[in-house]
Description:
The complex is a heterodimer of chains A (192) and B (270).
Chain A: H1 2-16, H2 23-42, H3 45-62, H4 72-99, H5 119-136, H6 140-150, H7 156-162, H8 167-191
Helix pairs in contact in A: 2-3, 2-4, 3-4, 5-8, 6-8, 7-8
Chain B: H1 6-13, H2 20-26, H3 28-44, H4 58-68, H5 75-116, H6 119-128, H7 131-159, H8 162-166, H9 171-195, H10 201-222, H11 229-238, H12 241-264
Helix pairs in contact in B: 1-3, 2-3, 5-7, 5-9, 7-9, 7-12, 9-10, 10-12
Amino acid sequence: MASTDKNDQRAIRDVLAGDVEAYRSLVVVHSAMVFRVAFRITGNEADADEVVQESFLRGYQKLPSFQAQAAFATWIYRIAVHCAFDLVSRRDRQAGHRQGGQSDDEFIPDLPDTAAGPEQELLSRELGAQQQHAMHSLTALERTAFLLRHVEDQSTTEIAAALNLAPNAAKQAVFRAVQKLRQRLAPLREKR
Amino acid sequence: MNHLTEEELIEYQYGESQNAAQHLAACPACSAALAALREDLAGLVDRETLAPAASRDTQYGENVWRRLRPSLIPHQERQRFWRRINLRVGLRLAAASAALLLTAFFAGRAWEARHAAHPVAANHASAVDPQSGEQSRERIIVLVLGDHLDRSERLLAELNHPREAAGDPALQTTARELLTENRLYRQSAHRAAENSSTNTAVSQSLDGTLEDLEPLLAEVANKPNGLSLEEIKQLQKEMNTGALLFEVQVLHARIQQQARGSVASKGGTV
């Protein structure tokens, strides 16, 4: 890790000195990590690929503001979270326009064919569909904050930094997400 | 006993707070609530379902790089580009502001000269346009013009020493900046010299000197491949940079002197 950091710092110095090719090593080393977080937030590979591309481009442009004492991985991670969040917010707005203001309660998820298999499998598939529906009922901010907290194990401070929020706002976004998800999934709890 | 709120349980679950630990150890209801929360969260989002079907390896990074590479401009070029843009915009703004100030100044002088012929009107004008405003305006003009003449003097002095001038990488940039400013000042001075009915000596002298200076600045600024030692020597000879330097120095001194005199006599004309 320390040697990665050293290599990263060297590459950053070279890039800032005008050597574009030095940025290649940063892209190659950190692309997979950036893709992982982008995929978790956007939920699909095409969007995640777009986020990766945009994150490294923004990273390159903002490189002069990079603080040498920080790790490039953390820095580019935050940029990726921000790009992914922007993208899902945009997608949500577009989806909102397409649905013409249809509320979440009216949204009917694609439930599996009940005649397809054993009862347990059906229940499991129904649960999965409901979870997906519950996740989509969250705002882009709530969903992103929750995924960062629950899946990416980021602290409130880190989430706040990545999403340009006050720590309390980040904490509230996670709380609201968990509360909404639990409410949505409460009926299924009985069946388990 | 106050039970823990859902928020406190969530905070505890994610390790953001340890305050609830003692309460949880002693309260079966809150322990049960925490267990239910954990069960919900555990089933909520499975990390595996959030893993992409296709893995991303080193080759993926190479692909990202290939797509990204054409959009990247070397950082030093980017900086130079923005510096150039900023410099150009800044220069234009500075020159435009200075030209506006000059126009206002000379227009003010002309207006004042016309009203001086009518004492009543002049008295009225002095009430409207306080002396302190006039003095500060003159100070600004002297400052703006003084800076331009000062920089022109330095450029001319450099051209009088061709070896130094040939080794100065900023020579043409300076000449371009001065040329832009010079055009605006000269136009303002020319208009003022035409419009002013009295006391036009300085504005005419200013107009003339700036007019003499302009071709030299244009020559230095517009040489496409820079200036060689020979070319500078030729310019020095053909455009008589020594005489031009003297002319600029005299004008500079005269403007400063008359401005000082004007301020000292509280409203005397330049």
